[in-house]
Every structure is written in structure tokens, then in C-alpha cells.
Amino acid sequence: MQLGKPVVELSGPWLARQKSRLRERRGHERLWAEGGGPDHRPVFTDRVIAALVILRFQLPHGVLAAFYGVDRSTVTRAVHEIHPLLAARGFAVPGEGGLRLRTLADVFAYAQARGVELRIDGTEVQVRRPRADKPGRRAFVSGKRKQNTKKASVISDDKGRALWTGAVRPCRMHDQTALKTDGSWDLFTQYPEVKTQVDAGYRGLAKDFPGQVTAPPKKPGKDAPAEETDAWEEARKAQPSAQIPVEHANAEHKQWRPLQRYIGRREYYDETHLAIAGLVSDRTAMR
């Protein structure tokens, strides 16, 4: 990904947010002419670079503060200005110049229009453990990983290019429940030609939309005939192959340090995950 692209893309929204914030703080329009007043330091391009470096390597803010010769709080403020803008960019579409997918409805509309078969899966990342006296602490405890994690749902095409990441939630919420809460059930009804491959965790989705969603069959009972058991075994072995593209999409996201283990505050995890996923999509869309 070229640096100039996000700098140009984010400069307008960033400047508009700064003007809005200052207007709200003053309570009136600016009195000085444009260009008056103190300059932003570091400049906008350096703020974007600092935010991207922290996204990629999860460096302490104090390291970049020392590099730019500013206070640590200045770098922290710059990061919290840039990361939400990166998270709101959406996902680049393969072969479609400036088109970006920002919502789940965009993904379904694109898949139906282009005949793309989707892949759906969930991913989880270890986060900070909540304080012992904090309500809802158990919601972050993963029964699978025995750690405190947050989950996200990922949708990719059959070539492993992520088209959407969202439904970020504490790990106790099931993958299928998160998608249902985000409105995927209504979208499958609205876009009846969309096809998707899922794993066993989304078997309820396949049950409700048998012509659109393909999931591995349920394991037959002990008294089932040999033919049924053999058919299930064959389908069970074929299913991971169908899910490989979305697993590759997850793996590309986790090359970025924050999605290997997130050490920041949990309330900033969502925008961090979405910002990384959007940046990765810029590269994968060129495949």
C-alpha cells in the first residue's frame, strides 16, 4: 500500500473533524483568518505515519514521541484521531477502482451482483483482562482459548480476499449469534442468490437457508448405516478445503502485531481491528 493514498484520502475528513471540534469548544466560528493560530505539530502526514507504525508494530507511544520530539500525549491524541478514520474507510473491492464496502448490506449486494461465493468465519484476539470488580468480566473469558479475548466475524471471497470484518464483541457471544444480531438473516432473505460456505458453528444459518448456505453435515449416530457414515466422513474432510480462503484472510490480518495480542485498552480494540482489516484489503484487492 502506498502512503500517499491514505494521506490524501484522510486529510479532508481529519481537517473537518478538527474544525468541528474547535468550533464546539469555542462556541462560535473562528475569529482569525484561515492559516492563523498555532500549527499542528506533528503535521498531518506525520500523524498518519505514526498511526500506521503503531497499527503495524504496536510500539509504545513514547517511542514515537521521542522520535518526533513531542510529548507522549500528543502521539496518543494523533493515534485516536487517525485510527477511527482508517476504520471507517471500509474494504477495497477487487477489480473495482474506488469502490469500498462499508456495511454488511454492501457485501451482500456486491456478492449478488458479481456472483461471488462468500466464506464466513470468526476470529478471536487476546485482550486485557478486566478488573476483578468490573461487571461483565466473564463475558471476555474464552472457553476455547482459556484467555480473555474479543471476537470478530470475517467475510471473504473464494480467493481469500476479505470483503468485510465486523460484529466485534466479547468472546462469550457465539459467532452465529453475532451475525444474526448484525442482520445477516434479513440480508439472506433480501439477496436470495448469494451463496456462502460456513463451518459447523453456523449450522443454524445453513438450516434456515439451505439453498444459500453450505455447512458440514451433522455427525451421524452410532447406529447409522455405513453408507451414511462414509458420506459424512467425506463431507467432513472436504469442508476445511472450502474454508481455507477465509482462514487465509484471517491469517493476513494477524500478521499485524495488535491482532496477535492486543495490549491496548479494550474500548479501542474495535477501531484498531477494523483499521487493520481495511488496510490489508487495499493490498489483497490487487491480487
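Second entry:
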Amino acid sequence: MDIRIRNALLVGCAALAATAVAHAQTADPIADLLGEPKLPAAPQPYAPARQTVARPLSVNDQALFAQGIAAAKRGDVSGAKSAISGLSDPVARKVVTWAMVDVSSNLLGFYDLDAARRDLDGFPRGLRRQIAAEKVLETAGKTPAQIIEWFAGQEPQSAPGAMALASAYRGLGRQAEASDLIRRWWRDKSFEADVQRTMLTRFADLLTVDDHVRRADVLLYGAQGPAARDVVALLPADKQAAALARISLRGNVETSFYALSPEDQASPGVAFERASFLRRRGQDAAAAAALSAAATDAVTPDAADRVWDERYRMTLASIRSGDWRSAYRAAANTGLNSGADATEAEFYAGWIALKQLNDPVAAGRHFAAIERIGSSPITRARAFYWQGRAAEARGDRTAAENFYSRGAEHGTAFYGQLSAEKLGLRLVLPADPVPTDAERAQFEGRDVVQAMRLLADQNQRDLFRVFALHIDDIVPSRVEAALLIDAIRGYGDQDTSMKAARGAAQRGLILADRAYPYRTPPQVAGAPEPALVLGITRQESGFDPAVRSGADARGMMQLLPSTASGVARRMGVSYSAAMLYEPDYNMRLGSSFLGSLVNQFSGSYIMAAAGYNAGPGRPPQWTAMCGDPRAGGQDPLDFIECIPFSETRNYVMRVMENMQVYRAKANGGSAPITLSSDLRRGGYNYAPAASSVASNP
């Protein structure tokens, strides 16, 4: 291996390997990563470490805590306050206060809400408490100076808060600051029509016609409800006509569009609604042409999201018709700068530029934008891998290896695994941390953790989950993430523990043991390899046997009763709907069903996974648009990334990355990465491959 790559990996592996070295005996993690032999050990199911219980409440406090939570939940402020006054445990008092404010903020005065805002700092839903206090701030009898001091230089989080602060500025003669604040909120924020009317009544003298034009533009990208219509009435005649045409087009009436001047017809907001109207009528080519005139620098993030929704539909329509240049134009220059929509837009633009337009330079720019936007390991690995592919297409192997080495830092992510495979690396799972007594005491000493435990002990499962997932958002380290997952599992909540594990992973806190539960699948004739079964199970249920979906899918592998009964009949076993919640029974049927899908798709794991998620009839439909991943010369990544359902696209990648992890777990924590060959499994091509650049993943 090139010494530059090895040196890069020494840096790249630090985030994962350092903690493993600190908590587990590992002679040379880099040697492991580079493929030194390692004796496999039989995988063991993960078991939580010793459970720490919440400090016990007195008998009196237990009764008052239960009474207080019950009162808070039913909106009984008086009953909740009575319980709070009698509680001696400070954390119990905080929890009941939190529940009361969370449900009944509209029944509380400013000083109660302000005290909760300060005293419950670090508890869930802090923004909700801030907004509740802002809404009644002007009823508190505070002077203008006191109101300004209360905000402490922070931006208001609500329109009532903005009005309170602006009024305080005016009260002290700070007219410019009042004007700047009100105009900023009027131009860029959405809020209820009655609040909008109040702001207009109180601060009309600070607003200009241009401010009204801007606000109308913002609101007309949204729901076009009463607030939007009220502002349209404030516009000059020519602007009002364009605004009303946008409303009419949304209602599938185009008459008023033709009454506009050519300049107004081509204005971004009108062009956007016209494109959407044409697309709904099936006129995709005309819609794409109209969309090219729509704003690429939409006025607000919300408007940009709305524009992307339409551009995304146009992108898919153009892909289906094979019009790749139109697809690229729809995906590029969306005006999005952050969030999942921005990464999807940049990816589609980059993928089309690289694979269909033979423009690796433009592709590299789009993939680099994903790197700037994204923070999660999954997103960053995707950005680095595809930057590597673009560099390869430019003939810059050195740059490609650098991108792949950076992608390989994220070894549990799909594209991180493909990056590592490009460099000939093995997957080596970092050991989970073993918390010290001091680390455990620090975690347990947090009020929010004690609150979570009190709620669990009182069987307040809904509130327990709110606190658990809030803690997951704020834990600062792998050690505390591990302790949180142990605590949640100690209360028997597998579903929430897996949500916490996934949330931690999204922040780069990888816990390969806790986040990938292991259960040996039952042996079933025709079942695929255990790693695929486990990969599917992790995505379907997170190994919670009691899960039941809204669609009535049940148990470990989320089987519909109709599907399960058919599988049981074919297997020659008795069927019981109640038994679908029994792990082994469910996994027997699920493994058999999954095996039948693998067989149906001629051995293709990715088509079987897509069929398991979206239904077996979908993958054959997608091959016409996306190419057949089993075809010689076809890049299977094109099929995956072309799947029009984002849920299924994500599902397939997560299943395939899970499979690599489970192979490593079954082999003592390390295994060769064979993801690219796994993507190519299957050999029967029953549909013509869509045009695409042939390249190895």
C-alpha cells in the first residue's frame, strides 16, 4: 500500500481507534485495519452493563410525583402546582414543573414561564418554553430597559417576542433598531394571520411597500392562506396581479397568468407556480422550460425547500424520459445551502454530471458542496466517495486516494465502506467504551438523566422517551452515549435505545457493539446468509420483537400477517398471528421470505432489500429508469441512487452497510469489505440497462 495512504489512515482512524485503544486491549489498530490476521471469536449478543437506578423517592414524594404528573398531563395547573409545592426532591419538582409548562403554557403567567425557562435549562423543548414566555412578556409590567435586558442580546424566537423587543427599542428612542427588527421579521418570517395583523397595526409606520412585496413573495411559496391573502391586498396593482396569478395557478386556473405582462410571467414566483401547474398536467417538457426561469436564490429557506420539492419531481421526470441535461438543470443551482434537501440536490446534480454528462469537474464541485453542507458520517462519507470517483474520472489518482482515505474514516457507513474497499482495507469495528466509575457518576449526576429515570420508575413511558432522545441529542461523548443506551435498555425499551444509538452515530459517536445487536438467526432452508438477515432486521425493527407499524407489520422482521401466513403455508409450519411477536418464529418466516426475494431477483441483494421495503413489484419497474444492477457493465450504484423513493434508497444502503458490520461481528470484530461484489450479486438481466457510465463501485 502507498505510504501516503497509510499515513492518511493514521490520522483518519484516530477518531475511532483512539477510544478503542483507551478502553480495550488492541496491539495495533492500524495493522488490524490494513488486514493483519485476527482470530475470530463467536459473536455474543449485547447485554447492557449493570443498571444504575434513580435515587429513590420517599413514599410521600412518590405519591406527589405521580399526582403531579397526572395533573400536568390533564392540564390541571392547580393540581400540578400543589404537588410541586409538596415535593422535597428537587429533580422531581423540576420534572412536574416541566410537564405542567409543556402542556399548559397558555394557562401560565409570564413569571411562571420565565422561572421555568431559567430553572429547566437543559431539559427537553427549551425553545417551546422560550416562545411561551415571549408571548406574554408584554403583560409582565416590565420597563423597556428591562425587556431589552431580558433578551440579553439574543434574537427573539417568536413574532410576539419581536414586537415586545421592538416596542422596547421605540420606548427608549432606538427607532433604527426597532425598524430593523420589525422589517426583518416582516420580510422573512411566517406566522399566523392574527399575529400578522397585530404587527401591521402596531408597526405599519416602519414598513415599506417593498417590505410588503417581499412578504407576499415569501408567503406565496407556502400555504397561501389568510396571511398571504391579507398581504396581497397591500400590494400595488401590478404586483397584486402577479400575486393573484400565483394563487390561481396553485388552484389549477391559468387564465390570470395570460393577463400578465411578459416580464411578470417570467418573474421567479410566477414561473415557479406555472412550472408546477404544467407538471401537474403532465406537460413535463414545458414545465422544465418554465422552471428554468424560477428563482435559484429563493427568498427564504422555506421557499427554497418548496422550490426543491418541485425541482425534485422535475429531475425524476427528466431521468425517466432520458433527458439528462434537463434533469441536471432541475437539480443544479437550487438556492439551498443547508439541510437534507440541499445534499440531495447537490448529489443529483453531481451524479448526473459525472455519470451522464461526462463532466467530472462540475460533478466534483457538487460533491464538494455536500461535504460543506453535511455533518453526519453517512453524508460526509457519501461526499468523499463521490469526490473520489470524480477525481478518478479526471485522471487524478492522487486526489482520488485522498478522498477515499477520508471517506474510509467512516467505516460503518455505506460509502465509507466503499471508500475503504477502494484502498484494500478491512473493516475493523472499534470497541465500545467501558465507562469508568467517574464517568458513570458524571452521567448519573445530570439532572436530566435523573429526570429520565424518575419517569421510567413511574412508568411514564411517553415522557421517558422524550427525555431519553433529548439526552441523546446532547451527550458529549461515546462514553455517555453508551451509558444512555445502557440505561434505556435497562428499562426494556429496545426501540428507543436503537433510536438513541442511531442518533449518536449521526453525530459521529459510533458504538458498534450497542448499535448493532446480534442474534443468531434460526436455520431455515433457502434463507440468505445471516448477515443479510440481521441487516434487514436492524432496519425493520431495531431488534424490538414488540414493534407493530402503522401498516400492521409486526415483530423482528416486520411481517404483515397476510405475508406471514403465506410464507408459513409454503414452509409447512403452523401460522399464528400472535406468534409474530416471538423473535425466533418471526425470524424463521422473515428469513424464508427474504430468501424468496433473493431468489426472485436472481441473487441480487440490493433488489431483494428494495423489494422487502417497497414491495417486490417495485424493483423491476425501476430497472427501466435506473438500469439493471445485475447487468454486466452496469454500475449498481446507479440503480440505488436512482431509486425514486428516498426511504427505499436509504433503506438499501443501510441494509448493505449493516451486512458488512455483521460479518465483522461474526468474525471477531474484523472482516474483509466485499461491498462492491455484494452490490453486483445476481446475473439474470430481464430488462435493458439504462444508459450509464460503466465503472466499478
